[in-house]
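General statements about sequence and structure are easier to judge against a single worked case. No coordinates are needed to read the tokens, only the vocabulary itself. The sequence in question and its structure tokens are set out directly beneath this paragraph.
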Amino acid sequence: MFGFFKAGKKPSPETVAAPGSAASPEPATAVEAASQPARLGWAQRLKAGLAKTRQVLNTPVGELFRRHPQIDEALYAELEEILLTADVGVEATDDLLDSLRQRVKRDRLTDSAQLRDALKDLLLALLAPLEAPLDVSRARPFVIMLAGVNGAGKTTTIGKLAKRFQAEGRSVLLAAGDTFRAAAREQLMVWAERNQVEVVGGQGSDPAAVIFDAVQSARARGIDVVLADTAGRLPTQLHLMEEIRKVRRVIQKADPTAPHEVLLVLDANTGQNALAQVKAFDAAIQVTGLVLTKLDGTAKGGVIAALARRPGHTGAPIPVRYIGVGEGLDDLAPFRAREFVDALFGD
């Protein structure tokens, strides 16, 4: 029913792009851009990628402190507005301001310029629990199931993860679990060609069966990591949410310990709507990690602070495993709280 596909002729952009939707997944040009060598180090690319969010958050904060040399209620009120504009979210904003007031009182701060460093420290403390690098050595094959809404960047994320795991010396197999979208398998094969890996898939087949077959094949062949794609879906599409529950159940039939990681891919441009996506997908498939993509194209990067305030099914915030700041293969990296905060504040 299913087969192994090696990358052959690269599909044209018309073939690769999802038809009829402005929110369609990545076109072939994204894959081509990803093949270009990185010209800057990760810290520089991260800083550049957060430029829009930094302009919303850090620049107004600096101007605010210059306008208010003394710490007063007017300063707190304006700072609240700045944080909300950066999509930090109401709960996280309240937490930060409450902690900032306590810090001012405890350390007897009087100069508003001191608040920038205090705010940075508090934001770092808020985000630190989200930092939890993914360890794929816990099982073989280590099965990673990826989910998300249409256009969030799942396919690009799979390509970048395949490159990363291969660079670590691990073998990778891709499972084309998005069996309904006409160009889904072709898109995955473009990434497979870039990474020289194989794809298991069958167009029109049951997605759970495709991924089951991929896990079985990976075990038989001694593959280290399976990256299982799933079709994009909205949390409101209840029949599709039930389908993805089935995918998870069937994976467990292939390997009772799998999936070992369930990654939810979030487009940073969605801002606070990301919280609703996390809640719905976590309830359906028990999300174990997040990937925040397209931070370079949004001023809403503060949503990561809101994610830190939302517990998952375990009662703790769901870790942000990776963040993406561009289309290049190296523009996806593990989330590190201090790096992120430094880049956000331009340090």
